[in-house]
Design a protein that fits this description.
Radius of gyration: 21 Å
Organism: Mytilus edulis
Strand order of the largest sheet: 1-5-3-4-2
Distance between the termini: 29 Å
Number of strands: 19
Number of helices: 1
GO cellular component, one term: extracellular space
Shape: elongated
Protein name: Vitelline membrane outer layer protein 1 homolog
Helix content: under 10%
Pfam family, one: VOMI
Order of helices and strands: EEHEEEEEEEEEEEEEEEEE
Strand content: 35-45%
Largest sheet: 5 strands, antiparallel
Length: 265
């Protein structure tokens, strides 16, 4: 009966016939029709990405991990009911001190329904022609703050090594950032962006933010600019787009120069 209360909501869902289903522990929500099961997919939309419907037993089952999966084990006679969660970007975050060199790469996003719970960087250690920050990747998780295994990274350069992951406190997500940039100069070795730091915030909390950085929290060149705006309430960072300079051959390489992040509802 309670499932029927949600059938009037103007949201879409996708039913994929005979889809292969991830072999994880599923919690049975009881026996019901496929329509009622789809309504429950909407009801539990904040905690799950997928609900499976076992046609042979008319059971509706929930993956409570909150993680949308891409690898599946076949279960005969099962439908995957998945919310239509195309990315709804409600704000773009930028800073004013980004480097001037390079071109914007393609934007990349977490799996739909996931948000950034942490990050890692690709940094080249100091040597003859310094480039410092070469790439940024966001670590994606569910609304339940589960680590879902996917990451998103836009354009990057080839130099340097990846740092370890730095994660927000439990149930918090990336919501604002600041960029350390070494401005271009014809008279010295320029490095572009050197480091990035973030602020973590709970999804429904507008003010309680925690600063997040990978130790030591700064690079050897340039300085941090002002913080970006923050994602609105009920949203968090879900994607990014980087501005990267191509390899200059015998010229001065700077690699990553600027970045913007996208907030999703």
């Amino acid at each position: 009966m309670f499932a029927g209360n949600f059938q009037t909501r103007q949201e879409l869902f996708i039913v994929e016939k005979n889809k292969k289903i991830w072999s994880v522990a599923l919690t049975s929500l009881g026996k019901m029709s496929e329509t009622q099961c789809a309504a429950l997919c909407l009801k539990f939309g904040e905690r799950c990405c997928e609900i499976t419907y076992i046609t042979s037993s008319r059971e509706c089952k929930l993956d409570q991990s909150g993680c949308c999966h891409s690898d599946f084990d076949y279960i005969s006679g099962t439908n995957l009911i998945q919310r239509d969660r195309t990315h709804v970007v409600n704000k773009t975050l930028s800073v004013t001190n980004g480097g001037s060199l390079g071109v914007w790469a393609s934007a990349e996003f977490c799996t739909r329904g996931h948000y950034a719970i942490g990050f890692r960087m690709k940094i080249e250690p100091p040597h003859g022609d310094n480039t410092e920050l070469n790439a940024i990747a966001i670590v994606c998780g569910s609304r339940a703050s589960d680590r879902c295994g996917d990451m998103a990274s836009s354009g990057q350069q080839v130099w340097g090594d990846w740092t370890g992951e730095t994660l927000c406190p439990a149930n918090a997500f990336l919501g604002a950032f600041s960029l350390q940039v070494h401005p271009y100069s014809v008279n010295e070795d320029s490095t572009g962006a050197n480091y990035v730091r973030f602020r973590c915030r709970y999804f429904k909390d507008e003010f309680d933010a925690v600063d997040l950085n990978y130790p030591p929290g700064y690079g050897p060149y340039g300085s941090y600019g002002e913080w970006s705006d923050a994602c609105p309430m009920h949203s968090a960072i879900c994607g990014l787009q980087t501005k990267v300079e191509a390899h200059q051959g015998y010229g001065d390489d700077t690699a990553l120069n600027d970045v913007i992040f996208f907030c999703c509802e």
